[in-house]
Design brief:
Helix 1 crosses helix 3, helix 5 crosses helix 6 and helix 9 packs parallel to helix 11. The strands form three sheets. The protein has a seven-stranded parallel beta sheet with strand order 5-6-7-8-9-10-11. The protein has a four-stranded antiparallel beta sheet with strand order 3-2-1-13. The chain is α/β, with parallel strands linked by helices. Strand 6, helix 6 and strand 7 form a beta-alpha-beta unit.
Length: about 375
């Protein structure tokens, strides 16, 4: 196919309530979409970069800049030789910027699969028609507020609770949730690199709560530190920010730093690399699950297809649209008996709702060949 134009859309989508992690608190999902126009049809994708370089070194304005200045000119130059599979080798010379790469690769893959009348799930080799849904609960101002949210999500049917933690908000919240709901509750925690090697004894205290995992407890570049922690505590160590490629995943597994892996397509450069990480993990008997970046329906749809692959044996963070948004940008994804249906239509299987996009769009810019 041939790439004719790309529309970069910035949107500010209001959240139902503030979402706080160890590194930020947000009330609005500030996001960039890539809307690709090819000679065979159009495709949509969501860039996972935040408004600030807090989760990773990328941020949405920077992603737009590198797409416009470097990535799109190279892809336009491919002419009729362009495929979604050619994006990574074409842009390999560009160091980093995986979230920007993921956005354009996914938009082109969506267009390619729509033209072929093939779904993301079929293309990726998914084996499930619905996936179990977990929910991520942010850091709260008080324990009663935390319990109010946890109870609400359990009543809605979520099958797993993930608590965001940081020093000073860890042992007591986890203890309260575990004691209130018992050992049958699937419970895990996510530190988003908030701890250091000096905190191993503090993290070991969490062993008594029989957690599914502790996610990215220390700095993403400290793979050896994670391996040492995995030897020191009983709770399985899961890597998130550290895992940026299949090669890094392989190294982390071999070193013993990753007993479980969270795969976020935007973080690793797209769904093709995500599939490679899945395959490496399955070959080494390492469970994987699908993380999230507060995606709207455009990003959520593709994540559900990924989470339906056979190696995704743990509930992920792909919650229902209503978890975050009063009004989503696509037909909302709904939780039914703790699960969400995997889209079956061509490509990502959903389309943006024009009037909703117009309501939330901050800017729209066309880049043409």
């Amino acid at each position: 196919m041939k790439l004719e134009a790309v529309e970069l859309i910035r949107l500010n989508v209001p959240l139902k309530s503030a979402f706080r992690t160890s590194f930020s608190s947000v009330n609005t999902h500030e996001v960039v979409w890539a809307h690709a126009i090819t000679d065979s049809g159009e495709g949509w994708a969501e860039c996972g970069a935040n408004d600030r370089p807090d989760y990773s070194s990328e941020y949405h304005t920077g992603a737009m800049a590198v797409l416009k200045q470097f990535m799109l000119p190279d892809l336009f130059a491919l002419g009729n030789d362009l495929t979604a599979e050619s994006v990574t080798p074409t842009l390999e010379w560009i160091k980093g910027h995986r979230m920007a790469k993921a956005a354009i690769e996914t938009a082109l893959l969506d267009a390619q699969l729509r033209a072929a009348n093939t779904s993301f799930a079929t293309y990726l080799g998914a084996t499930k028609t619905k996936v179990p849904a977990g929910v991520s609960v942010g850091i709260m101002d008080s324990l009663p507020e935390l319990m109010e949210y946890v109870e609400r999500y359990l009543n809605e049917g979520y099958v797993r609770i993930k608590l965001k933690i940081e020093p000073g908000w860890d042992y007591e919240p986890v203890k309260l949730v575990r004691e209130t709901y018992g050992d049958d509750l699937l419970l895990q925690v996510d530190a988003n690199t908030a701890y250091t090697r000096n905190d191993f004894d503090l993290l070991k205290r969490l062993d008594e709560f029989n957690l599914l995992l502790i996610e990215q407890p220390i700095n993403e570049e400290d793979m050896l530190g994670h391996a040492k922690l995995a030897d020191y505590i009983e709770t399985p160590v899961c890597l998130d920010e550290t895992i940026i490629s299949a090669d890094i995943a392989r190294d982390a597994i071999e070193l013993g730093a990753a007993e479980i892996i969270n795969i976020k397509p935007s973080r690793v450069g797209g769904y093709l690399e995500s599939k490679k990480i899945h395959d490496v993990s399955v070959a080494n008997n390492i469970p994987v699950w699908c993380g999230g970046m507060l995606e709207t329906g455009i990003g959520r749809a593709a994540n559900l297809a990924l989470a339906a692959m056979p190696g995704f044996t743990l509930p992920g963070d792909t919650s229902a649209s209503s978890r975050y948004f009063e009004v989503d940008t696509t037909t909302p994804f709904v939780l039914v008996d703790g699960h969400i249906d995997v889209p079956t239509g061509p490509g990502i299987g959903v389309d943006p709702i024009a009037e909703i996009v117009d309501r939330y769009a901050v800017s729209r810019e066309w880049i043409k060949a």
